[in-house]
Amino acid sequence: MNRVLSILLAGCCFGLADAQTPAQLPEGYVARKEVTARGLAPGMQATELAATGRTFRVHFSKGDEVLSGLTEFAEKNHITAAHFTGVGAFSSALLAWTNPDIRAFKKIEVNQEAEVVAFAGDITLQNGKPSVHAHTVVALSDGSTRGGHFLEGHVSIVMDVYVVVDTDAASAAKTGP
After folding, report:
1. Pair 140, 114: CB distance under 8 Å
2. Residue 42 is inside which H or E element, if any?
3. Residues with Cβ within 8 Å of residue 117, at least 6 apart in sequence
4. For a disulfide at 148, which of 65, 92, 95, 129, Cβ 3.0-4.6 Å?
5. Is pLDDT of 34 > 80?
6. CATH 3.40.50.300 fits 55-175, yes or no
7. Under a CB-based contact definition with an 8 Å cutoff, are residues 11 and 35 in contact?
8. How far apart are CA 15 and CA 69, in angstroms?
């Protein structure tokens, strides 16, 4: 089971194109390998819930700030209702924990390379303009994680965010109530 997990993690985290495996790896590392195991999810089921609206892949390059970019993307594409997920890495990020007692964010600074292990959010209208709201969890080199409300993130290497526009809300916004 550990071998299968290692293969899956290596394939998911590194991409498989041009994978070069050095003769010897340092202790604690796993070589990149193609995911070849099949038939290990016999209970899996998939159900299409509804036809979705427009779907975008928003690609960010090294140094890009993700929240700024997503906000600009939403404005340019007149997106008023959508949800998104993403994958990538940050060179630095500012996350936050919401303190309900003082109704403010407690900052969680990440000032090192971190892989994005979860990134999800939505785009809604606030005061007539698109507003991006996201939460993220990042993994540090020692395997520890930091997570919270996403306030800022500068891309390290690459990040892709997949945005799915809610067609019902988009139609309602165009035609009115």
Report:
1. yes
2. none
3. 137, 138, 139, 145
4. 95
5. no
6. no
7. yes
8. 24
Beta-strand ranges (E) seen in 26-111 are 55-61, 82-99, 104-110
How does DSSP assign 108-133, residue by residue?
A: EEE-S-EEEEEEEEEEEEETTEEEEE
C-alpha triplet 49, 175, 168: angle, nearest 5°: 10
* pTM of structure: 0.72
Number of H-type helices and E-type strands within the chain:
3, 6
* Distance between CA atoms of residues 135 and 147, nearest Å: 7
Helix (H, G, I), strand (E, B) or coil at 12: helix
| The pair of three-digit structure tokens given for residue 103, joined into one six-digit string | 């109704």
**What's the length of the chain?**
177
CB-based contacts of 42, cutoff 8 Å, min separation 6: none
Domain ranges of the chain: 1-42, 55-175
